[in-house]
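Input:
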Amino acid sequence: MTHLALKNISKQFGDFMAVSDFNLDVKKGEFVSFLGPSGCGKTTTLRMIAGFEIPSSGFITIDGADITNKAPSQRNVGMVFQSYALFPNMTVAQNIGFGLRVRKEKESDVKDRVAEMLSIINLEKKADSFPYQLSGGQMQRVALARALAIRPEVLLLDEPLSALDAKIRISLRAEIRSIQQKLGITAIYVTHDQEEALSLSDRIVVMREGEMDQIGTPFEIYNFPKTVFVANFVGTLNNASAEVVDPVRSLIAIDGVQLESAVDLKDRKKGDKVRVAIRPERFSFASEQKKANVVDCTIENITFLGSIVRIQVMIGKAKFYMDTFNNPFLELPKIGDKDQVTCSKEAVLVLDE
Amino acid sequence: MTQTALNPKVSVPASDWKKWLGVLPFFLFAILFLVLPSLRLIVGSFTNDEGRFTFVNILQLFQEKSILDAYWLSIRISAATALGGGIFGFLLAYSVTVGGLPKPLRSALITFSGVASNFAGVPLAFAFIATLGRTGFVTALVENLFGVNLYKQTNFDLYSFLGLSLTYMYFQFPLMVLIMAPALDGLKREWREAAENLGASTTQYWLRVAFPVLLPSILGSMILLFGNAFGAYATAYALTGGRLGIITIQIGAQIRGDVLHNPGLGYAMAMGMVVIMAVSLVGYSWLQRKTERWLK
Amino acid sequence: MNMLARIRRIPFWSWLWFILGALYFILPLYATLEFSLGMERDVIGFKAYGRAFEDPEFLRTFLYSNVLALLTIIASIILIVPTAYWIRLRLPEARRIVEFITLLPFVVPAIILVFGLIRIYSSPVNIPFTNTTILQPLTTFEVGTDILIVAGYVVLGLPYMYRSVDTGMRTVDVRTLTEAAQSLGASWFTIIVRVILPNIRAALLSGALLTFAIVVGEVTLASFLGVPAFGPYLFLLGQHRAYEPAALSFASFLMTWVVMGLIQLFTGGQGQAAGAH
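Output:
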């Protein structure tokens, strides 16, 4: 059953359409990410849920109640800001207790709740420290606790980890997810980092230029992207222009090199221009095992990326990347070699040009 | 040991004391024209007529009523203009930053503040005489509009505590604006949003977050304003011709002609001023450090 | 959005404070201007201005003050730029004490400074508590007094000049510039003259303009040291005349406005305050 719903939400700034016709139904306890590049409207949409922007049209409901025009202080949604926004004149404990004291709760209740939050984020020892004495990761955890302390209906997170070091980001995002699941709280998470979105979310909304490109589980978004943009944005992706050769047998050709796809092409005509996308990790050398598609290619470049070796091949006139796991005993081809690569039908995605 | 002054390509570390040669001219200048004069005054205040060390001058400072009155008057004027200038200056700065007035007004105010804070001294005194003097523009205006002659029917006098304070405000307001505008800019928008998000009203936000964060800045600026007014001489002299006995004017009289007939006491007066200014400076620095720490 | 919402958006209190402030600031200026234009009976004219500017004393003292300002600016730059540069490059340990020194003029305002300067340099210097004397009094030489007042002005301007130059150097990162120039083979002289100075031009200009504004209007040091400067002249004029001082005051306000406007131009709108005299 729907907990948070956005219906036909649009936001216009002068002539600029920041968000257009956004629709979303979120279940209670669900973790939804808004994923997209800068300026795609994800933060604007989040701020509309928080109440810092008023939608130009459409409405927002929580548990059926319309909050579209409610003041931010009346909505009971907790927000975690990108820059933490901790009040510098208050200690950690005072920051966390702020929302409760503003609601005039009993002092003893406030103290209990603050202690509870401190233990959830593991910062009991820092209760009396000031923000300037904390590290970035610690500040973010305090910001999270402050937002959760008021028992919000929905938790909103605006790129909370983008200002942190890579290692801290990874450990902190796991912590955020586990706290969210433990408390069963509905969460909306804005990010431009696709790895974050993929690892944290129940569902991802991929946004571009104010519009929703696709919504689905991480698995769906990654493996079955509906548009070139989504496919490109989420994960590395090879793509090239191609022509439909045989709609019935789902055959397409990239510069004459023919590939069979698992995608239904029956409503296309022979000669249609399409975009073919294949994940680098779906390629392998034909010498190991032959799959449905076997293609001649030339080795252009070999890059060692640690756990992965990325090999650049030319298929026809198109440049493709192939990722294979690093194996110290692997005999890699040399640059200039002619070789054969293979991939399954399912790996060949056909998208609109 | 090669000093790299002649050959910057060879980077040989200079020995410790030679490094300090670079700042020698500066130190020399400071000693000759800042430290030595100050020392002269300090030493002089501990010297009696025979040239020997004594505490008598300092003691007399606290016994001589006219001197104590002068200090007290200066302190009162400085405190009044610091408070008044601080409050109204803050409100002005607030109005063009957080208060939401259009941007061009902000530029105008900042530019004007830069000008007005430099417009002290003789021209300022003349300007206020032309405004609130016996035949001043506003004096006449008040008489024409309300039928009240400021000089005859009220106790008002430009050449008084009130008059001088009003005049001092002309550079105190702008000074406060110039300091507080950046400080108000430093109030992050996210703090307000976070407070709102957690359920706080505008008043609660200002009471619990904004003012506490701004307080060291505001207090520090007021101390700056205090020191500014306390050390002012030219404006007061040009306005009141030495009639208003603030401490700077007393010192001026002493410089000219040893009116106290006691050089040591004169020096002690000057040193007392320096002590008060130094205490203000210490207070200001302490508050500055607090501000910087919070607004990292 | 309806009318009520639109009205509610107008920040009433902000406008109130601003208008009150504007009134307070503009009235004295207007009063001065109006008075200065009233020299000829029943005629609004610039007679007072004409008289004031034609006075030979005005020219003499105004010129003198300008020269003083120029000398002060040059002396300040020669003193401060190498020092700030040296501290940034070689001697960061000196920073705290140098910054402390630049704060001292706040503790020692003009009246106190001139008191000390006169007592030290206008009488043979007595080593305290003993009977030995050194130095001929500086003020017996006319040049001596000029040196004294320029030195005094450099002291008064120290906080602003130093902060301006230091900020300018920090902004352009002189350390890296110097290292780049050194790696390309430049001598120290070349580095300072062709790399450092041009890059801190804006800071130098703004510091110089501020010093200029301070010196030309300065009264305390000038009158106690007895130099023929513009400040004392203006004061004296106020004792004997009514309209000309008003004219000059208004003119000096305009001049300050021009100077500060130039500073704004060069610093991009930060605003500088010199405080009271």
